């Protein structure tokens, strides 16, 4: 079985969020199951600057809305890079200084079409696995070109980002005009790229079983619940894992001291180190960590609104993230007010992310919706108890105290400031007064299987079904 995994970001080459982690780890696990799996991504400026030794593989050209489009293809190990300097040799991946690039449709239509061309050049691809709106046009091109020998799996990592563009840009796509229809790619007069991924793929997955059900409801469907219900027969949820070699407290070059469930003394060293890095007082109260995109989805506003109360409980907070400028601003003001107890770093910092996961006692993740979420799994692996809402992947991956056997975290009943504060109070009580229980939950969390193996097996069997179905149709 040969798979071509198409993604707009792949760690460590380019990362803005969980998609990059998935695109790095899942292919490795699929290979360990015996599949051939190559990955393809754009050749961004950050990769060019990193001076990696890239091998020139081939050149491709195709007819597009711009006339003839051309790209050089390079490789590094099993990752292919599509080069087009006009589109990808710039600072930022999808946006710059908080503003989306105005030519994103053209950029990712080009990349998607180039992925299809690469599959054709490789000649032996059975499955193309594409991800999110940036590569959702891949199955549309496969369909338009009549390439019946390749099956397409499409994964929705976050329904909030659908790739909606003005219909005047349609000619750039170079797709049959019939596709601009409400049942296919039209969405209230605009172009909706994600819809193409759902309509033209042979299988659609999303990144947790709960999210697969949620997105078919008006509350979580982001305007597409009815549309998704009509495709429910090909929609499944497969939970993400984390790369347990990158996130391994016993073997992590970015943290002050290694530790394990058996010997947690190193975690105390990591906590001191984190306090020092963020200029926090060396106190022994609970330390809450938060890493992520500072957007409504993640419930950042809820954390901001109870920050004074958290600090008043004698706790400390370490925040790393970037996103909406109002939240960045609020957090900066709060950190000035709570010097020594609140550390805020605005930006993207892999090293600090590891330090926070290792040094904190609890991890705040009060998301309003969460397709899967990786941070709660990373936290569990580092013995940092996740405090999570009951949505999507948070529901599927964290057993909260009081909700089942072997709890691994704490639940926030609803995404409201008061429920979040209740959960924080519960955490403080656990930390100060129920030390034995705290240790048990921490051990459960660290022993929980958060790796990719079982999910990769599910993808493998899905691909097998897709191939068998295609063969039968022949
Ligand atoms: P998302 O919705 O952003 O994909 P996930 O929890 O699935 O959220 O994955 C986020 C990934 O990105 C994690 O590996 C997390 O550590 C990382 N991350 C997010 N923000 C930052 C940041 N500011 N600095 C470093 N890593 C970050």
Description:
- The protein is an alpha/beta fold.
- It folds into two domains: 2-241 and 453-473, Glycogen Phosphorylase B (Rossmann fold, 3-Layer(aba) Sandwich); 265-447, Rossmann fold (3-Layer(aba) Sandwich).
- It has 18 helices and 20 strands.
- A nine-stranded mixed sheet has the order 3-4-5-2-1-8-9-13-14, sandwiched between helices. It has a six-stranded parallel sheet with strand order 17-16-15-18-19-20, with helices on both faces. A three-stranded antiparallel sheet has the order 10-12-11.
- Helix 5 packs across helix 6 and helix 9 packs across helix 13 (350-359).
- The mean pLDDT is 97.
- Bound molecules: adenosine-5'-diphosphate.
Short description:
With 474 residues, this protein is α/β, with parallel strands linked by helices.
Q: Shape from CA axes?
A: globular
Number of helices: 18
In round numbers, the mean pLDDT is: 97
SSE class: alpha/beta
Highest CATH level, the class of the largest domain:
Alpha Beta
Task: Give the N-to-C terminal Cα separation.
Answer: 18 Å
CATH architecture of the largest domain: 3-Layer(aba) Sandwich
């Amino acid at each position: 079985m040969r798979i071509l995994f198409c993604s707009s970001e792949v760690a460590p080459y380019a990362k803005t969020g969980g998609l990059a982690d998935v695109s790095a780890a899942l292919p490795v696990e699929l290979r360990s199951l015996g599949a051939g799996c190559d990955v393809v991504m754009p050749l961004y400026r950050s990769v060019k600057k990193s001076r990696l030794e890239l091998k020139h593989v081939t050149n491709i050209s195709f007819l597009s809305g711009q006339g003839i489009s051309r790209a050089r293809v390079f490789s590094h190990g099993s990752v292919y890079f599509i080069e087009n300097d006009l589109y990808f040799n710039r600072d930022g991946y999808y946006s710059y200084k908080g503003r989306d690039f105005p030519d994103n449709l053209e950029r990712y239509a080009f990349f998607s079409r180039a992925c299809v061309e690469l599959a054709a050049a490789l000649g032996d691809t059975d499955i193309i696995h594409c991800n999110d709106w940036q590569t959702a046009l891949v199955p549309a091109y496969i369909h338009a070109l009549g390439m019946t020998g390749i099956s397409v799996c499409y994964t929705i990592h976050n329904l909030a980002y659908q790739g909606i563009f003005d219909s005047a840009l349609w000619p750039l796509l170079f797709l049959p005009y019939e596709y601009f229809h409400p049942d296919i790619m039209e969405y209230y007069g605009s172009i909706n790229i994600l819809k193409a991924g759902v309509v033209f793929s042979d299988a659609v997955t999303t990144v947790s079983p709960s999210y697969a059900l949620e997105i078919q409801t008006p509350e979580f469907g982001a305007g597409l619940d009815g549309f998704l219900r009509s495709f429910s027969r090909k929609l499944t949820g497969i939970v993400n894992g984390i790369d347990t070699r990158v996130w391994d407290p016993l073997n992590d070059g970015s943290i002050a001291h290694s530790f394990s469930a058996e010997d947690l003394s190193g975690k105390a060293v990591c906590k001191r180190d984190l306090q020092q890095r963020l200029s926090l007082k060396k106190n022994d109260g609970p330390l809450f960590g938060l890493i992520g995109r500072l957007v409504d989805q993640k419930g950042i506003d809820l954390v901001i609104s109870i920050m004074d109360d958290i600090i008043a409980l004698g706790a400390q907070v370490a925040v790393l993230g970037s996103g909406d400028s109002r939240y960045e601003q609020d957090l900066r003001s709060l950190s000035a007010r709570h010097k020594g107890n609140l550390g805020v770093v605005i930006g993207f910092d892999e090293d600090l992310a590891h330090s926070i996961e290792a040094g904190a006692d609890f991890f705040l993740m009060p998301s309003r919706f969460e397709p899967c979420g990786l941070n709660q799994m990373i936290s569990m692996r580092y013995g940092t108890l996740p405090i999570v809402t009951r949505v999507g992947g948070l529901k599927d991956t964290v057993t909260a105290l009081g909700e089942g056997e072997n709890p691994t975290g704490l639940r926030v009943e609803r995404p409201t400031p008061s429920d979040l504060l209740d959960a924080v109070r519960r955490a403080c009580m656990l930390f100060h007064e129920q030390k034995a229980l705290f240790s048990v939950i921490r051990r459960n969390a660290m022993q929980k299987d958060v790796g990719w193996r079982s999910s990769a097996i599910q993808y493998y069997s899905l691909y097998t079904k897709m191939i068998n179905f295609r063969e039968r149709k022949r």
